Amino acid sequence: MQVLILGVGDAFTKKHYGSSALVRAPSGYLQIDCPDPIHRVLHEATARHHGQHGWQVGVDAVDDILLTHLHGDHCNGVESVGFWRYVLRAQGKQSHLPRLHATRAVVDRLWPRLAPAMDTLIGLSRPARLEDYFDIRILNPDGKAVHKIAGLEVRARTTTHYIPTVGVLVSDGERTFGWSGDSRFEQAHIDWLDQADFFVHEANFPPAHTTLDELAALPERLKAKMRLVHLADDVDPTPYGLSSLCEGDLLDI
Ligand SMILES: [Zn+2]
Q1: How far does the centroid of ligand 1 lie from the alpha carbon of residue 69, in Å?
Q2: Which DSSP string do the residues of 47-76 spell out, in sequence order?
Q3: For residue 58, how far is its CA from the centre of ligand 1 (angstroms)?
Q4: CA angle 8, 234, 70 (to 5 degrees)
């Protein structure tokens, strides 16, 4: 399984994009979170790998987007994806809706966030709805339910964050990739992510996030298969014995 890192930043970054990733799936791509400016985010991360690995992926080609939660650094790109894909359908260039995967708690509050910008469409006599832009698929966040997405098996687990948030485990049947989602340190969440062959964990300031000290205290076995994102700009985790990722990194899981 290949995973392309799209963004590694936090909500206040001056240098990066919001933490996000693109998983190459048996049938298409699964994007984990959707920061702004998503067209550029995808363009820059995939441009490094054109030809070399067959990555040339834009918003047109990503049919499955999973939203971990509604903080803007993780979901501000949804409006632009929705509009762009609507334009492609209006022009007859595509016929299908992109699928948006999220928990009920996220979906219920997503449209109130988007509606002021998206509830009027030229040519539509009624107010537009979220379902005019996305095929909504509800994730069960119990950590166990398996969701088939683009040929992958995906599980979601509620994290400990200010608002409803999930981490994910993504499996192609042979290898499993983990993504912590935003979370303060929680041993049970680490244990769940330990089912993965390789996982990405967030780190930032407490109390909403996990500290480098907490992650540094994990067993070496776990740290060997963990890489970090969501660090504040210029925070170097190497003195803690930890490694972070860069935008455009391509992981072979
Ligand atoms: Zn957050």
Answers
A1: 7
A2: HTTTTTS-----GGG--EEE-----HHHHT
A3: 25
A4: 35
Ligand 1 centroid–CA 95 distance in Å is 33
Rounded to two decimals, the pTM is: 0.96
Per-residue pLDDT of the chain (253 residues; tens, 9 = 90+): 999 999 999 999 999 999 999 999 999 999 999 999 999 999 999 988 876 666 889 999 999 999 999 999 999 999 999 999 999 999 999 999 999 999 999 999 999 999 999 999 888 899 999 999 999 999 999 999 999 999 999 999 999 999 999 999 999 999 999 999 999 999 999 999 999 999 999 999 999 999 999 999 999 999 999 999 999 999 999 999 999 999 999 999 9
Tokens found for residue 91: 């022009």
Number of domains in the chain: 1
Q: Distance, CA 53 to ligand 1 centroid (Å)?
A: 31
- CA–centroid distance, residue 98 to ligand 1 (Å): 23
Containing domain of residue 36, as a range?
2-252
Supply the CATH number for residue 49's domain.
3.60.15.10
The region, left, alpha or beta by phi > 0 then psi within -120 to 50, assigned to residue 76 is alpha
Q: Dig out the tokens for 253 from the structure.
A: 């899981």
Cα(244) to centroid(ligand 1), Å: 18
How far apart are the CA of 231 and the centre of ligand 1, in A?
12
